[in-house]
Amino acid sequence: MSRPTAVTGPARTRLAPKVPHVAAVFWVVKLLTTGMGEAISDFLAGHNPVLAVAVGFVVFVAALAVQLTRRTYHAVSYWTAVAMVAVFGTMAADAVHVVLGVPYAVTTVGYLAAVVLCLALWRRVEGSVSIHSITTRRREAFYWATVLATFALGTAAGDLTAFTLHLGYLDSVLLFAGLMLVPLLAWRLRVLGPVSSFWIAYVLTRPLGASVADWLGKPPTKAGGLGVGDGTVSMLAAAVFVVLVGRLERRGSDRPRVDEPA
């Protein structure tokens, strides 16, 4: 009697790890994408909000599709997808407040619930939310859904501190920079595990980077910005982003380590 054929499909197809190795450069580029996404989104929305959202959505879907169809890690496709999640995630979060008038406190709580739900479902279905366990299409889908939710949460949280809590941009930068130390110290002291520490830090990079971009780009009359301009901040951040990601692609220094535990 012949053995039954194993079930195969997108959810079970084994992939090489497609999330970069987490080192200092990972957090530098991640922070850069958050600030760049904030500045680009605000710059485009200031000219034609409807067209900006439409174009942002199309490019976001295209970048994510390229990343999902890859079978191995490539720095350019991965970080381009992250950057477009940053741009579109900012647009989506801002639209809920600006268009629908939902307070930042409500959107922050709502997006926090979305992040928790994504992680809870991911862990329930797959058994782990470690980025080193992302070796199937289904796990990768959970990962990108969670990433999108974290960007929306970070956008709302940054605006909450700057406007609703009246901290302004610079104090928001200092607040989130200080909060970034919490998961690092908790991990060093073994109070939190590496997976929990990673996701807490990942969420906090969004409001930190966005607050820096807003502080640089917005006028002094708006929450104490420096007035450099969203367009200028966008171009500078994009230039640095291209250089860093290009070097990562050439050198392969952030390629995932296949021997890292899931």
Task: Summarize the structure in short.
The chain has 262 residues and is mostly helical. Helix content is 71%, strand content 0%.
Labels describing this entry:
71% helix; globular; mainly alpha; 262 residues
Describe this structure in words.
The protein is an all-alpha fold. It has one domain (24-250). The protein contains eight helices and no strands. It has helices at 24-45, 49-69, 75-98, 104-126, 137-164, 168-188, 194-217, 230-251. Helix 1 crosses helix 7 (194-217). It is globular, with a radius of gyration of 19 Å. Mean pLDDT is 87; it is low at 1-8.
SS elements, strand count: 0
Radius of gyration, whole Å: 19 Å
Structural class category: mainly alpha
- Beta-strand portion reads under 5%
The sequence of SSEs as H and E is HHHHHHHH
Largest beta-sheet characterization = none
The outline comes out as globular
Q: How far is the first residue's CA from the last residue's CA? A: 37 Å
| Count of runs of 4 or more consecutive helical residues | 8
Helix share of residues?
A: over 70%
Q: Show unreliable segments.
A: 1-8
Number of domains: 1
